[in-house]
Design goal:
Blueprint (H helix, E strand, L loop, with lengths): L9 H15 L4 H5 L41 E4 L1 H11 L1 H6 L1 H14 L5 E14 L5 E16 L5 E12 L10 E13 L6 H4 L1 H64 L6 H35 L11 E4 L12 H11 L1 H22 L4 E14 L2 H10 L2 E11 L5 H68 L5 H35 L18
Parallel strand pairs: 1-6
Antiparallel strand pairs: 2-3, 3-4, 4-5, 5-7, 7-8
């Protein structure tokens, strides 16, 4: 047969031009290569000129856009329970870690989706021109479509259902049916027998995802415990810093009173003028203690505002937080063995390592399976149909007169298998490393529990010692004042006694706060939170 006129020689050339144009263009590079900042910005450090910074009184700090209506309160009393509740609800770190379990849950869904059935469909058109002689050839136009469903099985195999339909026009009147319609329906099954065989091997990725979700939940619980413990610590430090500020102000008032007494005695001629100088010097030195205490109070307030992250308490607000919970010191004698047993049950670090070991065990089991040869069992059943019309073709297909069967086994054996053996050795070493890390973590947690018990007992002893110091310092101050009134000593002796009393009171306050913090640390060491209420939270929902 001679070459028909319908051959289109321009089509391959046009396709080649399009491919070269798309391959040579660089329009996409800006999308992938563009940096968020210019290169010189990453290699330059700008200087800071203090004189160029606007003054706070000239440029007031703008109010946040999400600020509540009305001015913030000048003073706000918060109990420790209110601070814990606010931290659970608003703390940014907690809000961040709550997303982790939701991501891990979707990873499980992703792995389970590997066994979802897949619908497949394709349509193809072809023109063939096969030479028979140098002058003639056979030409055929064929339009074919295929539709099917592929079902991955948890045993490792694959089940396929396919339906094919084609129309062939050969331009040959003596060549049988022209055009010819042929159709086929097939069912095929492929199953590995050694490598990649079995439900446990093929669900390895799902098990890893499930363990990963549990690890994310343990990390979330650990972070919530850590945040709540940090809130408790900064709460008691704020309480202590406010009390210390009050002590320093009282010390200043006592020094002021001593200065007035010295002036009165000097004016009466009973003391020399140096007594006034001593009292004025002591009064000036008390100001530094007040300033330092005020800065500490502001720092602790900002830390607490940042931790609870309430909308009505931004860090730059002028609201003064007053702790509404008073310390309730009590002498606790804990059994260290019981606390260590509780820590071994509740510490999320140990549970996380246990889950990682479970992941390692599953990985080792999977990699041992990968050492086996690949043996595949294949079976296919196909029914064929043919006719000069599509209906006749499907009628013949439905009669199942022409059917094919095919069964076979294939074998693939790596000569050496070094890569699989190396991966298995790495997994075994990683598991051994996790076992040693777990043993080290258990020893560190045991040490942490014992140290928490010792610190709690030491904090209680410091409370008793500092209370005794306060009582003695008060008696010493009264004695020094009586002797000063009798003219036996000087203002220096009274002022030194006042300073000792202020230091003793500050130490007692710090001891009370440290005792509460020691209780918090003891609870944290056992994997719990201080208080009587349990905590429950919900994972973040996907938008």
């Amino acid at each position: 047969m001679s070459r028909p006129a319908c051959v289109r020689p321009w089509f391959p050339a046009a396709l080649l031009v399009v491919a070269l144009a798309l391959g040579g263009c660089t329009w996409y590079r800006a999308t992938f290569v563009k940096m968020p900042a210019a290169s010189f910005d990453l290699r330059t450090v700008e200087p800071m000129d203090p004189a160029a910074i606007p003054r706070a009184e000239a440029t007031p700090v703008p109010a946040p856009t999400a600020a509540p209506a009305g001015p913030p309160p000048a003073e706000l009393t918060l109990t420790i329970e209110e601070c814990r509740a606010a931290a659970i609800t608003n703390n940014l770190r907690i809000q961040s870690v709550l997303v982790g379990p939701a991501i891990a849950s979707d990873q499980i869904s992703e792995e389970e989706a590997r066994f979802e059935a897949v619908f497949q469909s394709s349509v193809a058109y072809s023109e063939t021109d096969t030479p028979v002689t140098t002058e003639t050839g056979t030409q055929a136009h064929r339009l074919e479509s295929k539709t099917g469903v592929s079902m991955p099985l948890r045993t490792g195999g694959t089940l396929n259902f396919n339906l094919a339909d084609a129309r062939t026009h050969s331009f040959a009147g003596d060549n049988g049916l022209d055009p010819a319609y042929d159709s086929s329906a097939s069912v095929s099954f492929s199953q590995p027998l050694l490598r990649n065989a079995g439900r446990r091997t093929n669900t390895h990725a799902i098990r890893l995802a499930v363990y990963g979700q549990q690890i994310a939940q343990t990390s979330t619980r650990l972070e919530i415990i850590r945040v709540l413990a940090a809130v408790d610590r900064v709460y008691w430090r704020l309480y202590a810093s406010r009390c210390v500020l009050q002590v320093r102000r009282q010390d200043y008032d006592l020094a002021q009173s001593q200065l007035e007494t010295a002036r009165r005695l000097v004016d009466a001629g009973e003391r020399s003028s140096v007594e006034v100088l001593r009292a004025e010097s002591a009064l000036a030195s008390r100001l530094e203690g007040i300033i330092t205490a005020e800065v500490t109070v502001r720092d602790r307030q900002r830390e607490l505002k940042q931790a609870i992250h309430r909308a009505d308490l931004p860090q730059d607000s002028a609201t003064v937080i007053v702790p509404g919970t008073e310390p309730d010191p009590a002498h606790y004698r804990f059994d260290a063995a019981s606390l260590m047993a509780q820590a071994s049950r509740n510490r999320m670090e140990l549970l996380e390592l246990e889950l990682e070991l479970a992941q390692s065990d599953s990985t080792v089991e999977y990699l041992r399976n990968q050492l086996l040869p690949l043996v595949m069992l294949d079976y296919a059943y196909n029914v064929n149909g043919l006719g000069d019309s599509r209906r006749e073709s499907y009628d013949l297909l439905d009669s199942r007169r022409f059917a094919d069967h095919r069964a076979g086994i294939s074998l693939l054996v790596p000569l050496g298998n070094g890569a699989a053996e190396s991966r298995l050795r790495q997994a075994l070493l990683s598991r051994q490393q996790k076992l040693r890390t777990k043993a080290e973590s258990e020893a560190l947690i045991e040490q942490e529990v014992l140290m928490a018990c010792d610190n709690l007992e030491a904090a209680w002893q410091r409370i008793l010692a500092n209370r005794q110091s306060v009582l003695l310092a008060q008696r010493l101050l009264e004695a020094e004042r009586r002797q000063y009134e009798l003219g036996i000593n000087t203002s220096n002796d009274v002022l030194i006694a006042q300073a000792k009393l202020a230091d003793a009171q500050s130490a007692e306050i710090q001891a009370l706060a440290e005792h509460q913090i020691a209780l918090v640390d003891t609870a944290y060491a056992t994997g719990t939170v201080l208080g009587a209420a349990k905590l429950r939270w919900q994972e973040a929902a996907a938008p």
